[in-house]
Amino acid sequence: MRIAILGGGGHGVSVAYHLAKKGVKDISIIEMKRINYGSSGRNAGRYRYHFHSKENVDFAKHAIPYLLELCKKLPLNPVCYRTGYLWILKNDETFNFIRRMDTLWESFGVGGKFLDCSEMDYLKSQDQCYLAPQDGSFHHDYLTFGLYEEIKEKVKIINGEAREILTSGGKVVGVRVNEVTFPADQVVVTLGAWAGDFLGKNGFKVPIEPEKKEIFITEDLKFRVKPLVISDQIYFSHTLKGEIIGGIEDSSPRMFTNFDVSLERTLIFLKELRKLVKGAEGIRILRGWSGYYEMTPDHSHIMGYSQMWPEGLYIDAGYSGHGMMFAPFSGKIMADLIADGYKNKFLDVFNPDRFERNKLVDERMVI
Ligand SMILES: Cc1cc2nc3c(=O)[nH]c(=O)nc-3n(C[C@H](O)[C@H](O)[C@H](O)COP(=O)(O)OP(=O)(O)OC[C@H]3O[C@@H](n4cnc5c(N)ncnc54)[C@H](O)[C@@H]3O)c2cc1C
Questions:
Q1: Where are the coiled-coil regions (predicted)?
Q2: Which atom number of ligand 1 is nearest to the Cα of residue 161?
Q3: Considering only CA atoms, which of 32, 298, 343 is closest in space to residue 157?
Q4: Could you read off the pLDDT of 98-147 as tens digits, one per residue?
Q5: Nearest atom in ligand 1 to 177's CA
Q6: How far is the CA of 1 from the centre of ligand 1 (A)?
């Protein structure tokens, strides 16, 4: 079995890791830039159980413990750390929304607690807050490179742009990489925000669109902001060193653009942060960067294969801004499917054909 994995982000590397662990021999990752160039090297490194849809909460209930176990085993330490998420409930609408969500979360055993924000000695807010203590943080680079470290002698890395999926008799037979034909029996598309565009050009309609997001890190302050704090304008948290990492809650047009960071957004982030965190009044920005959320119409990922596709074509992409935390577990599901033909229950829920069948997941919590 010759397997070509397109895209060397967290998901591509995780699929390769899990296939290699099963003893699959001929695995190649085709990456146009370098391992972790895309969103997997540009995210906030947070994990959570708290989603709007029961499908994503259920997925997280399987995926997060899997991530936390893997953290203990990898040769590089991704520093998985339980910090919690804290929502600032600015008005009745958000309060009532979170109250409804708490009932769902409680039913999955991950309920949180309502409290006065003033109980958080680092916050200036007098609003109501909601603390979900089960969530946390990890370092995304060490996760991907920890997986990569385990397989780098076993997997070929092909540096080039995948341009065309080659088929014959209803089956995948390879990929065109730049101008070269690369034979393969199975092709796994783990192209993140680029997956929809690539598959579309190959005649397979998959609704994944790039949405640019900027993210910032400040100079360090004494560590106090343990949870990821989410207000209506910004989200932020301390890194262990004491820098504050976060971004603003806005949306950009869905398109490929450059990875610049705008002065305007930097200033909004700084202004809001200084308003909310005690002792952060004069704090400065150390650096900022940007990446893509890989958005689908129901803000949930797409995994498995379509009945309409040639045999041997698979996808694992479209995580809509919450895919880093899921990379280990999704890689396992995909490897079980490709190597053993084992169909995890989530392959039905997050199947690519759900858009045609109008069986969408009701996910609204994109952070
Ligand atoms: C600012 C920001 C904050 C985020 N915060 C979090 C968070 O806190 N927690 C969380 O879980 N998730 C978070 N995410 C989302 C997370 O980063 C992504 O969901 C995840 O990294 C997607 O991984 P991937 O492997 O699918 O895609 P990517 O990491 O984007 O990998 C795709 C790869 O494909 C390559 N590629 C593209 N086209 C081609 C081609 N034609 N041929 C070959 N290679 C190609 C790219 O170079 C890239 O390396 C955040 C994202 C951003 C941008």
A1: none
A2: 42
A3: 32
A4: 999 999 999 999 999 999 999 999 999 999 999 999 999 999 999 999 99
A5: 42
A6: 27
Question: pLDDT digit string (tens) for 158-211?
Answer: 999 999 999 999 999 999 999 999 999 999 999 999 999 999 999 999 999 999
| Confidence bin at 251 (pLDDT 50/70/90) | confident
Q: Which atom of ligand 1 is nearest to the CA of 7?
A: 34
* Measured CA distances, 269 to 61, 72, 170, 214, 276 (Å): 31, 34, 51, 10, 11
Residue 311, C-beta contacts closer than 8 angstroms, at least 6 positions apart: 170, 171, 172
Cα–Cα distance between 48 and 85 in angstroms, integer?
A: 8
User: Average pLDDT of 218-246?
Assistant: 95
Q: Report how far residue 296's alpha carbon sits from residue 53's, in angstroms, rounded to the nearest whole number.
A: 14
Structural domains in the chain, sorted by start: 2-63+141-207+297-354 (3.50.50.60), 85-133 (no CATH), 209-295 (3.30.9.10)
Alpha-carbon distance 171 to 17, whole Å?
24
Residue having the nearest C-alpha atom to atom 50 of ligand 1: 43
Distance CA 197, CA 209 (A): 8
Could you tell me the sign of the dihedral formed by the alpha carbons of 112, 115, 121, 122, in that order?
A: positive
Q: Is 32 in the pocket of ligand 1 (CB under 6 A)?
A: yes
Is the beta carbon of 63 within 6 A of some atom in ligand 1? no
pLDDT confidence tier of residue 250, bands split at 50, 70 and 90: confident
Distance between CA atoms of residues 281 and 261, nearest Å: 22
